[in-house]
Each structure stands twice: as structure tokens, then as C-alpha cells.
Design goal:
The structure holds two protein chains of two kinds.
Chain A lengths: L16 H15 L13 H14 L17 H14 L7 H13 L2 H13 L4 E4 L15 E5 L2 E9 L9 E7 L10 E7 L5 E6 L8 E12 L3 E2 L5 H7 L12 H17 L5 H29 L9 H21 L18 H8 L9 H12 L5
Chain B lengths: L2 H17 L11 H6 L8 H9 L18 H13 L6 H13 L6 H5 L5 E3 L18 E5 L6 E8 L2 E8 L4 E6 L5 E6 L13 H36 L1 E2 L2 E2 L4 H29 L4 H30 L10 H11 L6 H11 L6
Parallel strand pairs in B: 1-3
Antiparallel strand pairs in B: 2-6, 3-4, 5-6, 7-8
Classes of the chains: A alpha+beta, B mainly alpha.
Chain lengths: 389, 357
């Protein structure tokens, strides 16, 4: 590869799109640790810290933040290119809740004092954030959350339980949606609170998921005292703020990438199993390929909208449903053609491309997280098709 | 394409859609379509002339040959609007003939065909579900929509290792017709022994390309039809009451509607991507791959959406008086024209490159 000069961070947003893409490729080629490419599981802080800190040192950590706060100030279109290249290179996700969720929220709704206090520590990796939204009885119906914060002098006292707190064991700060008014309509009594994980009364317990991985945790709050200046935005407006932050990033839930990866592994497996040439398999595969290609075309129409500066509508839910259900269909097909090998705990032949059972299990939560596909269909029917009730 | 070019293109496509209002009533009234069903010739020759006058038959024919020289983006938009209104005129067949005569240098009856004065149909197909035209002399040519209304036919016939094109008046061949579900008919055309002199030679590539375009345009017609049937179904779900509730409030029906919406969206994305690829000059396997994708998707989705439209309407959807059934019957006829979904899936696998990672 010809050496491509990597310009200083402040210049990246001004590059022409294709040039920018080449710069991202060169940047990854130069800086991304080879051993962290395409990890089979979500990495813990101890594993991905080296990459987080590299991004931090180079000034590349926060692509979507405005430059004045230490971000790259990239447009949605450029952020999509960046993500595409990260995905292509097999870059692992970092502990990115501070970068993706908390930072933008503080920038939009926080006080100047909160911006000064929290943003720089995300940029240096000193604060690693996790997200406390879901609860055992508030999953799809998130607004039913019951973890409560009661004002006592200069502190809120938090009691309750959060669940599916991704990588909470790695985090030293958590942002919470808490109930601050039990008498209001459920969406109108919720506030947004920042909590130091070292505060007495917090217990984190990992949950082992079907991948036999401890990605998620339960987080318990027992009389946890939180200084009242850690409230972001107005009291009881937490729901609206969290919702307003669901921006164009929703498009990534529908990125065809995951299905493309699985589809190429399906072919490798079909050849390994000797069914690739069979007419019945060819038809099965053709259906999946066509679904994938048409998903890419549909995804492209949404990317074009962002490039023209438009925002995404509720119809973006279509991408999430189509992508995740296609991903599952591909892994279902892998299982079907693998014979007894489907039941193996480790990849077939020790080949990571033949991780039949692993991929099948990895595909399961895709239709659950980010708003289950049932919720996405509710959104489509009410907000796109305008069906009543 | 620059932003300005893209805007011009969008404007050109919008104008084509607007002009379709001359044929397709904006209120969705299908009286004209109903009156033509199961009557010879199955369409309105005066309307076909009007289509010619509006430049639709020669939409894809270069301006130097008397056509409009527009792209597949425009042609697909037009077909979509016609599909929305179930226009029975054989525009796709007429346009196919016009393109063949144009690539042959504008010979034969091209001007009259473009004007909509003379309907010429291309009798190429020798068996069901194919895109191959072997050009067997004297072999009956099958499944030719609205053949009973044609004044003449173009016949691709193999001479040596190449296809030549002959133009013959209808009176010179035997034309038998069979009614189709949509109220039209298929013709079987038996060529005579003596074909006279060809109007063009070595048309194999031109014919294959024109058949691909016809497959894509057929997909667009199906898209228009399925969108209209789906819109009627949504209206029904928003108003029909049972158990004291509007049935569109039932989640089982809402989710089914969401599934149909996704099929319609995928079909549109697939067709528009294919039209854009062809307009940008895609050739060979890349061209065949995108056409096959679009046609496979449109064939399956149009049948799914129209039969689910019947189901979601319940009993009323099963009556001939209610329009939604007309869309089902049209999809039954057109889904397999210029290749069924399974044909196009097979073809896609032979021409498409590997998944890009």
C-alpha cells in the first residue's frame, strides 16, 4: 500500500469522502493491534484498553463529538464511512458508552461545569462508563422502570436494580435512568443521574450469557448517595433526553455487515460439508444472498438520506428487522447443513471460520437488543403505516 | 453522479410519474380496466396510441431513432405507475419491439410502432419460464401477452449460429389465444415456412439485453401493483371494525402489515438499484445479476403482498367486485413473465460474484 499521510484530527472532517476512507484504512493498518482483529466475543477493558488508549492519544476516540469538546466533528456520512472501515478491518468495540451515549448527552444537556468535569475524563480513558437503563421488570417497556432516587439534602438516595448493564464490572461510572416522581405519568417521572461506581451501596454481579461470556451484569443500588449536582438536565426530563439521543446511530443496527460475514462462512461450511454444489442448497443460498444484496440496497437508500443531510425516520426500523432476521436465517442454515457438527462447543476443525454453534448462539440476541424486533414492528405499524392504537 | 445531475434525474422521473396520470386515475378508479377485461383485444388501442404520442413506447429508444432517449430510472417509474393502475396496454411488449428495431438501425415499422399506430410484438419465447430465445424456425412462440391485438410480429430466427429478425404481418402467421387470469390473453404464434427477408441480422445480444430490460420493467410494474394493493389493505385495516374495535389495532395484523411493508421496501430498493446500475452502464454478468435480483424479489413479493391483501380483507377481498383481487390476478400473470423467481435465483447464482466482505 502506498503510504497515505494521516492528517491531524482537526482536518479529518474536511477531507473528501473517498480520501477519508483511505485515511481510515491507513490509520487502522498502522495502529490497530493485529491480535484484536475479529474477536469472537465482546472484549473486556483489560483486553481493549490498549486500543482505547491509542485512539485517545491520536485524538480519534470520539468521531461524533464536536471539535471544541475534543471530538473529530465528523458528519453522519463520515461516521458511517469510519464505521464501515472499522467493521471491514474487524475492529473490536471498546467500552464505548461514554463516547457514544454519555458524552453526546452531556454536550447537549449538561451544564458547563458538568462538561468540564466529565468530557475530558472520557477522552483520557480515566472514566469508563456503563449504561443503567433496563431493569428486571422494565425491558421493552423501559418507561416502567422503578429504581428510584429520592432527594435527601444535597444528595439523591438511589435504591433499586438495573440489569443487562454491559461491562459494568469494567466501568467506574454509570449513567442511570431513575424514577424521581412516582405520581407522574410513567415517562414524565424519570431523571438522568451520573453515579460513581465506587459509591458505597453498589453491587455488580456478572451474568453468564448463552455464549458462556460475562458481558452483562446485574447492578444493585442500596441507599446509594449521589450528589445532586450529578443530575443532568431538568428533573423528570430524563426520558425525553434519552429518547432525543437516539440519533442516526440506529442505522448501525441494520448494517448488512454481520450478515455478510455469516454468509461467507456459510459458503465455507457448505464446501466443507460437500453440499455446496447441490441444487437444493444452491437455492437456499441464493435466497439468502438475494436478501443480503437487497438489504444492502435498502441500507444504501438510508445512507444516501444521511449524506443529503436528512435525518432518519421511524422507517429505519425496517433495516434492523431485516438484517437481524437474515443473520439468524444464515446461522440457522449453517446449523442445518452441519449435521452433528452443529452441536460442537468449539469451531469445527479448529477453524474460526467454522464456528457453527458459536455463530448460531451469537445471532440469538440480535433480534432482542436495540429494541426487540417485536417492538420494531410496533414502531413500523404505528409510526410508518399509521395503523391505529 | 453530481448532486445537480441527481436533482435533474429526480425531476425527470417525477415528470414521467405525473404524465402517467393520463392513464391512471389518481383516485384509483379501475372502471376502465374492468371494462376491458375478458374482451378482445383486452386493451384499448386508442390508449396505446396515446401512450405512443406521449413517447412512452420509445422511452428507451435513442432520440436519433425517434425515441425519447431516457433511462431505466424513468422507464421503471412509468411502469410502476401503470402497475398501480393495472393498465392492460402491452407497453412492455411494444417497447421491447421498439428497442429491437432501434438497435437494428431503425428499420421496419419502427416509426409507426413508436407512434402507437401499429402494435408489433416480439414472438421470441418457445417454452415456459425462460429468457433464452433459441430462434427455432417454425417452432410455435408462446405466452405472448395481447398477441390477439397485434398488427404484426417480430420473429427472431436462428440462421446459422446467429439470430436474425423478421417482421411479419399478423395475417401471415397463425395466432391462437388463451385467456389469462387478469382478463387479457396469451398468444401462441406459429411462424410460416417462408419468412421473407430479415429486417436485421445478428440480434442475439440486442435481444438478450432487451429481455433483461423487460424483466426489470416487469418487476417495476409489479411493484406499483403491490404498493396499491397494500395501500388499499392499510386503508381497510384503519377503518374496518370487528369486536367493537378497528381491526388495525390488533397486533397480529399490525405485525403482518409491517412484514409486507418491508417486502415492498426491499423490492423498491432492489429495482431502483438495478435501474441505476443499468443506467450507469453495467454490462455482462453485473447487469444480469442486478436484473435477476430485482425480478426474483418483485415476483415473490408481489404474490405475497397481493395474497396477504386478500387475507387481511377477509371475505370482501374474495369478491370480484372489490378491486384488491384484480391486483392478485395481475401478479399471477406477470410474476413469472421474463423469468420466475426460481429462474432468476438460479441465474443470479451463475452470474453473481462472491459476497464482498
Amino acid at each position: 500500500m502506498d503510504a497515505i499521510r494521516i492528517p491531524p484530527p482537526a482536518e479529518l472532517d474536511g477531507l473528501e469522502d473517498e480520501h477519508f476512507r483511505q485515511v481510515v484504512r491507513a490509520f487502522l493498518h498502522e495502529n490497530y493491534p493485529e491480535e484484536l482483529r475479529n474477536p469472537p466475543k465482546r472484549l473486556h477493558w483489560a483486553e481493549n484498553k490498549v486500543w482505547y488508549m491509542t485512539l485517545a492519544e491520536k485524538g480519534w476516540l470520539c468521531p461524533g463529538w464536536p471539535k471544541e469538546h475534543g471530538g473529530l466533528g465528523l458528519s453522519p456520512a463520515k461516521q458511517i464511512i469510519l464505521t464501515e472501515e472499522y467493521e471491514r478491518h474487524g475492529v473490536a468495540r471498546t467500552n464505548d458508552h461514554g463516547i457514544v451515549m454519555l458524552g453526546p448527552l452531556v454536550i447537549k444537556y449538561g451544564t458547563e461545569e458538568q462538561k468540564r468535569r466529565f468530557l475530558p475524563k472520557i477522552l483520557t480513558g480515566e472514566h469508563i462508563w456503563c449504561q443503567g437503563y433496563s431493569e428486571p421488570n422494565a425491558g421493552s417497556d423501559l418507561a416502567a422502570l422503578r429504581t428510584e432516587a429520592v432527594l435527601d439534602g444535597d444528595h439523591y438516595v438511589v435504591n433499586g436494580q438495573k440489569i443487562w448493564t454491559t461491562l459494568a464490572m469494567d466501568a467506574n461510572w454509570i449513567f442511570l435512568l431513575v424514577r424521581t416522581d412516582k405520581n407522574a405519568k410513567k415517562q414524565e417521572g424519570i431523571s438522568f443521574l451520573l453515579v460513581d461506581m465506587k459509591t458505597p451501596g453498589i453491587t455488580v454481579r456478572p451474568i453468564i450469557n448463552l455464549e458462556m461470556h460475562d458481558e452483562f451484569c446485574e447492578t444493585f443500588f442500596d441507599n446509594v448517595r449521589v450528589p445532586k449536582e450529578n443530575l443532568v438536565g431538568q428533573l423528570n426530563k430524563g426520558w425525553d433526553m434519552a429518547k432525543a439521543l437516539l440519533g442516526f446511530e440506529r442505522i448501525f443496527l441494520g448494517s448488512p455487515r454481520q450478515s455478510g460475514y455469516a454468509l461467507s462462512r456459510l459458503k465455507i461450511l457448505a464446501e466443507r460439508m460437500g453440499v455446496w454444489e447441490e441444487a437444493s442448497f444452491q437455492d437456499q443460498y441464493a435466497r439468502l444472498r438475494l436478501e443480503f444484496e437487497d438489504l444492502k440496497a435498502l441500507y444504501g437508500t438510508f445512507v444516501d438520506r444521511l449524506k443529503r443531510g436528512q435525518s432518519l425516520g421511524p422507517d429505519v426500523s425496517m433495516l434492523k428487522i431485516i438484517q437481524t432476521e437474515l443473520f439468524q436465517k444464515i446461522t440457522d442454515t449453517m446449523l442445518e447443513i452441519a449435521g452433528e457438527n452443529a452441536g460442537l462447543l468449539e469451531p469445527l476443525d479448529g477453524n474460526r471460520d467454522l464456528n457453527i454453534g458459536g455463530l448460531y448462539i451469537q445471532a440469538r440476541p440480535a433480534t432482542i437488543y436495540g429494541g426487540s424486533n417485536e417492538i420494531q414492528r410496533n414502531i413500523l405499524s404505528k409510526n410508518v403505516l399509521e395503523l391505529p392504537g | 453522479m453530481s448532486a445537480a445531475e441527481a436533482d435533474d434525474r429526480a425531476e425527470s422521473i417525477r415528470m414521467i410519474r405525473d404524465s402517467a396520470a393520463a392513464v391512471v386515475p389518481p383516485d384509483g378508479d379501475l372502471k376502465r380496466v374492468r371494462a376491458l377485461r375478458f374482451q378482445a383485444p383486452g386493451f384499448d388501442p386508442a390508449m396505446l396510441r396515446q401512450m405512443g404520442e406521449m413517447g412512452w413506447i420509445g422511452l428507451r429508444v435513442p432520440e436519433a431513432m425517434g425515441g425519447a432517449g431516457l433511462g431505466l430510472g424513468e422507464m421503471c417509474a412509468l411502469a410502476e405507475e401503470l402497475g398501480r393502475g393495472l393498465a392492460p396496454e402491452p407497453l412492455i411488449g411494444a417497447a421491447l419491439s421498439a428497442q429491437l428495431l432501434a438497435t437494428a438501425g431503425g428499420k421496419g415499422s419502427l416509426p409507426k410502432l413508436l407512434a402507437g399506430e401499429t402494435l408489433l410484438l416480439t414472438a421470441w419465447q418457445e417454452r415456459a419460464d425462460t429468457l433464452e430465445a433459441p430462434g427455432t424456425p417454425e417452432a410455435p412462440r408462446r405466452f405472448l401477452p395481447m398477441a390477439g391485438g397485434a398488427a404484426g410480429f417480430l420473429l427472431p430466427v436462428r440462421v446459422g449460429s446467429r439470430l436474425s429478425l423478421y417482421e411479419l404481418p399478423a395475417a401471415a402467421l397463425r395466432v391462437a389465444t388463451e385467456p389469462t387470469q387478469d382478463g387479457g390473453h396469451f398468444g401462441t404464434v406459429t411462424p410460416p415456412r417462408d419468412l421473407g427477408r430479415p429486417v436485421a441480422e445478428d440480434i442475439g445480444t440486442a435481444l438478450a439485453d432487451a429481455l433483461d430490460e423487460a424483466a426489470l420493467v416487469t418487476a417495476a410494474y409489479l411493484l406499483g401493483g403491490m404498493e396499491r394493493a397494500f395501500a388499499m389493505t392499510l386503508d381497510y385495516l384503519r377503518t374496518r371494525q370487528q369486536f367493537g374495535r378497528i381491526i388495525g389495532t390488533f397486533q397480529a395484523l399490525q405485525h403482518r402489515a409491517a412484514d409486507l411493508k418491508m417486502q415492498v421496501a426491499l423490492t423498491r430498493a432492489s429495482i431502483e438499484a438495478a435501474a441505476a446500475a443499468l443506467d450507469a452502464g453495467a454490462s455482462g454478468d453485473a447487469r444480469r445479476a442486478v436484473v435477476s435480483r430485482a425480478k426474483a424479489r418483485a415476483a415473490e413479493a408481489s404474490l405475497l403482498v397481493t395474497r396477504q391483501s386478500i387475507q387481511l380483507h377477509g371475505g370482501i377481498g374474495y369478491t370480484d367486485d372489490y378491486d384488491v383481487g384484480l391486483y392478485l390476478r395481475k401478479a399471477m400473470v406477470m410474476a413469472n413473465q421474463f423469468g420466475s423467481a426460481s429462474l432468476h435465483r438460479r441465474r443470479f447464482m451463475t452470474v453473481s460474484p462472491e459476497v464482498e466482505e
